[in-house]
């Protein structure tokens, strides 16, 4: 950029950072018609992490949306190569080796769900892998997968090409222009201050890579990431001249990756003892002001283990000389996923924290973030990458550091369902936590909360329950079956204090929520409503219950992990509508204990003078009552399909309330249970889970939640027009319940579902229903395949397991048990 040009005084959108992220966002914004865009780079383009990247572009990730974004990247890179910008994209293909039986299972699982995207990932034999990459020793290799469209690219060329294309679309690029401040007024972006002058703007996109945390601080926004040192080496030339380049190669069991570099190899990996670059006792993510176009000193001792591993797989690595070691810093996040989207400051977006897959992701990231800015929402469900997934617990830099280091260390590990993380625990605990611990709870962690998965001592009562085969059976206990059965038979007591609780109050609270929700929620005081909040396309952005507590106060309860997300969605709606409301996270204020089961009324009656009869206390209503001297807001709701109540009480009463309910119920057959039993029961009832069964990409009609949609309500609601249009077009697919014939085959999610020989859908969620005695799976299927009785098969680790579409809910379709 001609830095001799004066900086404009104003631009609609300012992008901070001229790495591959910023360049891609600029290009995609310009492609979507945004012309008033200014990209600011404090040094030269591609002088951050981008210039020292190894440039591998692998498309397959654990997250479906990210895989689709990476596929888009490859399409874009192909086009760039073919265009006039001369970007060196090498579509070499990519191999992933399995050096353990578990890894082969992972590969088969990935192959199965890659099918649902049209990603041509295929299993190849060990022999074929060796033919494609003749340098490998096949010792210990048990299988492999090959993806012909993977490859590698020159990162600096990519960044410059995207910036040039953006420029030719009218984007202004100012290098050697450092942003030193961001002006925020009334929670909204007003402009940026730079060392070359100030620029007024409506939108800022923080594409600062590892500098993004620092840039976030200028706007008072926390971006949880840590600059980590990441190393690879480049060998001397030793490869014979080849007609075709070697494919990229990953051996995750040995923690290493390779690609061809001229006639040598690049080899890097993820060591078990990673090094956070900038973390000292007093600083976590501050990058030196002059760190541009620079590398870190090589750290051979830390790389040595990877170097040894690399020789196991490619013996030639033992003899070949090392031309250089590249040690570059890169922004990693606490869960190895990107930070994308709008922050709590209106107009302040982020696209950073690319965790060493930013080159692979750049195309898709730019597209998604541009959509988010221009259209208000991205076209894919990017919940796993949405900055709003990080709650207040990540304000702590130390916690961010611990979790990030753990994620880096586990980068290549297989993510078995139910496998728990260790770092930074315990952090958030219910007042009943000591009771759970003393009674043999097995804890799972979510959003920093220690939650009971099940109680080990209940296991003996569940003996005989079918243990799922394979991965689904890895972190499993018969206690899950026992707690499920006891709840259906007598009663179960569950600690759901981790549920995120949001309070919406103020003069416009009722009108805002009526606009944000598809159901009528501003009903009588005490009423409880299950609803979704939709985006403009009718997709489900949030799914929660709303309890009207007073004329101008509403209490929302949503999933443990979704509090920050749902709150920022509601805040965004409030800003758009100019609503006079307060939206507060009150999660920690109240405990929530669920007492469910046929004897729940009998148990609770002992502790309260309140009339709990069907007439006095209707389903989907709330009342202020006392339970064992504890003031409680009791909600007659259920997530398991049984009679019962959720008891909300101020936290200081929590220990007393739990103990009292337990004491009252234990001789009546009450069992304390955990989240795994809840999940099994909710599957039998067909209750949907946001993030898997329902997402921003699915509408309530498709999800079978049409009963929540009140098209005719006064004033309309967000997403209504899109729903009307979709109704007119007619439904094309529907969320269906299926059961599998083999009770030991239990899905994990994302498996393809076949009708005949055709892949018709992908599993959203599933598990075992211990009452209906069946392995249950859910998937969106075309209407023609959605009829109960349709024969299906589901690909589990390469084996097609037969099943059938069934009418739902599978358990108590008339809802008699809920009515008690
Ligand atoms: C050793 C190594 C190997 C890698 N290998 C791969 C790989 O094989 N495949 C892959 O997909 N990914 C890989 N990556 C990751 C990839 O390189 C990064 O994810 C990507 O380059 C990050 O791009 P970015 O635009 O987010 O950040 P950056 O490239 O760091 O860009 C951020 C820019 O913001 C600028 N900036 C910061 N503060 C300010 C300010 N105040 N004002 C103005 N400008 C500012 C900086 O100067 C910088 O240029 C690797 C990374 C490393 C370190």
Shape: globular
Taking pLDDT < 50 over at least 5 consecutive residues as the criterion, the unreliable ranges are none
Secondary structure tally: strands: 40
Q: Indicate the proportion of strand residues.
A: 25-35%
Please give a structural write-up.
The chain has 820 residues and is an alpha+beta fold. It is 25% helix and 28% strand. The strands form 8 sheets. Strands 5, 6, 7, 14, 15, 16, 17, 18 and 19 form a 9-stranded mixed β-sheet that branches. Strands 9-2-1-13-21-20 form a 6-stranded mixed β-sheet, sandwiched between helices. A hairpin with a 2-residue loop joins strand 36 and strand 37 (758-769). The longest helix is centred in the N-terminal third of the chain and has 19 residues, at 64-82. The radius of gyration is 27 Å and the shape is globular. The model has no long low-confidence stretch (mean pLDDT 96).
Key terms:
nine-stranded mixed sheet; globular; 820 residues; 25% helix; 40 strands; alpha+beta; binds flavin-adenine dinucleotide
Layout of secondary structure:
Elements: E1 13-16, H1 20-31, E2 37-40, E3 56-57, H2 64-82, E4 89-90, E5 94-98, H3 101-114, E6 122-124, H4 126-132, E7 143-147, E8 151-153, H5 155-168, E9 172-174, E10 179-185, E11 188-194, E12 197-200, E13 203-206, H6 212-218, E14 226-235, E15 248-251, E16 256-261, E17 264-269, E18 275-276, H7 300-313, E19 322-332, E20 339-342, E21 348-352, H8 358-375, H9 397-409, H10 433-438, E22 441-446, E23 449-455, H11 478-489, E24 491-495, E25 500-505, H12 509-516, E26 528-534, E27 540-550, E28 553-558, H13 563-577, E29 582-585, E30 590-596, H14 600-605, E31 622-627, E32 630-635, E33 644-650, H15 654-665, E34 670-673, H16 675-685, H17 720-729, E35 733-740, E36 752-755, E37 758-769, E38 774-782, E39 791-796, E40 799-806, H18 816-819
Parallel strand pairs: 1-2, 1-13, 2-9, 5-15, 13-21, 24-34
Antiparallel strand pairs: 3-8, 4-8, 5-7, 6-7, 10-11, 11-12, 14-17, 14-18, 14-19, 15-16, 16-17, 20-21, 22-23, 24-30, 25-28, 25-29, 26-27, 27-28, 30-33, 31-32, 32-33, 35-38, 35-40, 36-37, 36-39, 37-38, 39-40
Helix pairs in contact: 1-5, 1-8, 2-8, 11-16
The chain binds flavin-adenine dinucleotide.
């Amino acid at each position: 950029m001609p830095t001799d040009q004066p900086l404009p005084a104003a631009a609609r959108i300012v992008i901070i950072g001229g790495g591959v992220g910023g360049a891609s966002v600029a290009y995609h914004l310009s492609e979507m018609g945004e012309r008033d865009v200014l990209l600011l780079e404090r040094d030269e383009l591609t002088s951050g992490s981008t210039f020292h990247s190894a440039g591998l572009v692998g498309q397959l990730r654990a997250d479906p949306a990210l895989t689709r974004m990476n596929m888009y990247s490859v399409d874009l890179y192909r086009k760039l190569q073919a265009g006039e910008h001369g970007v060196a994209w090498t579509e070499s293909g990519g191999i992933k080796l399995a050096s353990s039986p578990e890894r082969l299972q992972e590969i088969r699982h990935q192959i199965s769900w890659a099918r649902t995207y049209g990603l041509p990932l295929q299993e190849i034999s060990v022999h074929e892998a060796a033919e494609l990459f003749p340098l490998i020793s096949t010792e210990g290799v048990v299988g492999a997968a090959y993806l012909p469209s993977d490859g590698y690219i020159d990162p600096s060329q990519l960044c410059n090409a995207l910036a040039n294309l953006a420029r030719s679309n009218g984007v202004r690029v100012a290098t050697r222009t450092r942003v030193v401040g961001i002006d925020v007024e009334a929670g909204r972006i007003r402009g940026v201050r730079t060392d070359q002058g100030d620029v007024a703007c409506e939108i800022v996109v923080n594409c600062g890579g590892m500098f993004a945390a620092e840039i976030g601080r200028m706007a008072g926004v926390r971006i949880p990431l840590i600059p980590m040192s990441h190393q690879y080496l480049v060998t001397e030339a030793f490869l014979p001249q080849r007609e075709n380049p070697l494919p990229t190669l990953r051996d995750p069991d040995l923690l290493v990756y390779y690609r061809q570099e001229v006639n040598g190899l690049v080899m890097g990996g993820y060591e078990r003892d990673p090094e956070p670059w900038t973390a000292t006792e007093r600083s976590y993510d501050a990058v030196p002001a002059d760190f541009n176009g620079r590398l870190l000193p090589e750290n051979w001792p830390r790389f040595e283990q990877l170097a040894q591993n690399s020789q196991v797989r490619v013996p030639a690595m033992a003899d070949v000389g090392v031309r250089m070691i590249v040690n570059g810093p890169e922004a990693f996040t606490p869960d190895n996923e990107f930070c994308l989207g709008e922050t709590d400051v209106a107009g302040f977006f982020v696209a950073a924290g690319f965790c060493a897959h930013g080159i692979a992701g750049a195309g898709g990231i730019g597209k998604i973030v541009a959509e988010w800015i221009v259209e208000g929402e991205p076209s894919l469900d990017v919940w796993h990458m949405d900055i709003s997934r990080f709650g207040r617990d990540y304000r702590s830099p130390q916690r961010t550091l611990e979790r990030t280091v753990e994620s880096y260390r586990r980068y290549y590990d297989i993510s078995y369902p139910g496998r728990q993380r260790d770092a930074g625990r315990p952090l958030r605990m219910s007042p009943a936590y000591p009771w759970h611990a003393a009674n043999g709870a097995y804890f799972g962690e979510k959003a920093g909360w220690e939650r009971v998965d099940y109680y080990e001592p209940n296991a003996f009562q569940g003996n005989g329950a079918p243990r799922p085969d394979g991965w689904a059976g890895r972190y499993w206990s018969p206690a899950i079956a026992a707690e499920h059965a006891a709840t259906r038979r007598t009663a179960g007591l569950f600690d759901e204090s981790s549920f995120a609780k949001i309070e919406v109050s103020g003069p416009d609270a009722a009108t805002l929520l009526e606009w944000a929700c598809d159901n009528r929620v501003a009903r009588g005081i005490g009423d409880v409503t299950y609803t979704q909040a939709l985006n403009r396309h009718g997709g489900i952005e949030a799914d929660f219950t709303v309890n009207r507590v007073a004329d101008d106060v509403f209490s929302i309860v949503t999933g443990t992990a979704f509090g920050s997300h749902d709150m920022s969605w509601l805040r965004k709606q409030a800003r758009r509508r100019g609503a006079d409301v307060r939206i507060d996270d009150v999660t920690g204020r109240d405990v929530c204990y669920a007492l469910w089961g046929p004897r729940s009324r009998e148990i609770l009656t002992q502790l309260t003078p309140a009339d709990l009869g069907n007439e006095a206390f209707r389903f989907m209503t709330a009342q202020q009552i006392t339970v064992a001297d504890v003031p409680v807001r009791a909600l007659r709701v259920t997530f398991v399909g049984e009679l019962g109540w959720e008891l909300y009480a101020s936290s200081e009463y929590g220990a007393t309330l739990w103990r009292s309910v337990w004491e009252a119920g234990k001789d009546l057959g009450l069992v304390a249970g955990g989240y795994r039993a809840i999940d099994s029961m909710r599957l039998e009832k067909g209750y949907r889970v946001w993030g898997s069964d329902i997402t921003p990409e699915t509408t309530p009609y498709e999800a079978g939640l049409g009963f929540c949609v009140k098209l005719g309500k006064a004033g309309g609601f967000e997403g209504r027009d899109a729903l009307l249009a979709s109704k007119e077009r007619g439904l094309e697919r529907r969320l269906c319940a299926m059961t599998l014939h083999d009770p030991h085959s239990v899905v994990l999610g994302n498996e393809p579902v076949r009708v005949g020989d055709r892949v018709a859908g992908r599993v959203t969620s599933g598990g075992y229903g211990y009452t209906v005695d069946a392995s249950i799976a859910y998937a969106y299927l075309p209407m023609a395949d959605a009829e109960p009785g349709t024969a299906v098969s589901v690909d589990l680790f390469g084996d097609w397991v037969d099943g059938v579409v069934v009418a739902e809910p599978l358990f108590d379709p008339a809802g008699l048990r809920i009515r008690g």
